[in-house]
Amino acid sequence: MSSSGSPVPVVDPRGQRFAASVTSVVLAVVLVLQSPWLLALQAVVFALAVVLGPGRSPYGLVFAKLIRPRLGPPEHPEDARPPRFAQGVGLVFSLVGLVGYFSGLTLLGAVATGLALAAALLNAVIGFCLGCELYLLLKRLTPARS
Amino acid sequence: MSDAQDPAVGRSYADGVLVGVVVLAVVVTFVGVFSLYRRSTDGVFATGRTPTTPPTAAVDPGLAPPAAAQDELGLVEPDREIIVEGEVGEQLGERATVLQFSSAFCAPCRTTRVLVSAATADLAGIAHIELDAEAHLDLVRRLRIVRTPTVLILNRAGVVVNRAQGVPKRAELLAALGAAVG
Question: Which Pfam families match (chain B) (predicted)?
Fold first, then answer.
């Protein structure tokens, strides 16, 4: 847990790309198999990343245990707050998807899962952080204060 | 739980699979196209744009110049915005200024800060000012900033003569500064 006085929590950016790749595959399988339970598992992974930090989410731990030892330490560890925020965005999408699938609104479930997939895939492919970009645009929409 | 004997349930599952496959195809296509677009525009300054000549009239800080029309991304219309020192709280460079908009949730912003600082450290009269976009929303709207990091190049009069979204390429940044200094 970081307070304002302690150093900023960091995360290995390569671990984030790995986690985004695994997430993309899982969500693609959810879409094709119509599997709300698999989506629920992914939502749990998102929630753990938000609560514990992305480096300690299940995918982050797999990366740390199995993959990082082969790669060596990261050149530049990154601030953990943006990816954590992004995982929160993924969590929101997957919760909406769960509501859709479990209430029989398959289209809602598929579209929300598709949005989460788009965010994860963009992160995996070009390191693009959808939540981070939407953040400023949403801020801009708030009425101007004189 | 689904009842395998009920043909309606089987059909709705098949429909669901079809919907899922279609959504998957749309998402993958979109991500592919967007990634290519991003790769080609990220960190690129509008090369070949001639710096606008600063108006000779003094600028009233309270009166923002009219925003350049329509182009929300600021990629087509040359900027004619003028930044005055009061708006950014720091001294503009004597010859030119690199004005960087950043936000807390932004990994590339740090990369940009390091790159711009290193590129401008040895250049006399070039200031590097970094602003938190969230704390300067009026400026963000006026300058049509849609992403962080966005890097603006100001000439000595504070006129925005160039901009790049995303982490700028060092050589382009230096070329843009050279053009701004004139």
Answer: Thioredoxin (PF00085)
Return the top range by mean pLDDT from A42-46, B9-13, B170-174, B176-180.
A42-46
- Determine whether the interchain pair B106/A34 forms a contact, defined as Cβ–Cβ distance below 8 Å: no
B37 touching A (Cβ < 8 Å): no
What is the token pair recorded at B161?
A: 């003569």
A99's tokens: 């509501």
The model scores a pTM over 0.85: no
Strands B150-155 and B96-102: antiparallel
**Sequence-ordered alpha helix ranges (H) in chain B:** 7-41, 85-88, 107-120, 137-142, 170-181
pLDDT digits (tens, 9 = 90+) for B35-52: 999 888 888 887 544 444
- The string of pLDDT tens digits covering residues B2-21 is 445 566 667 778 888 899 99
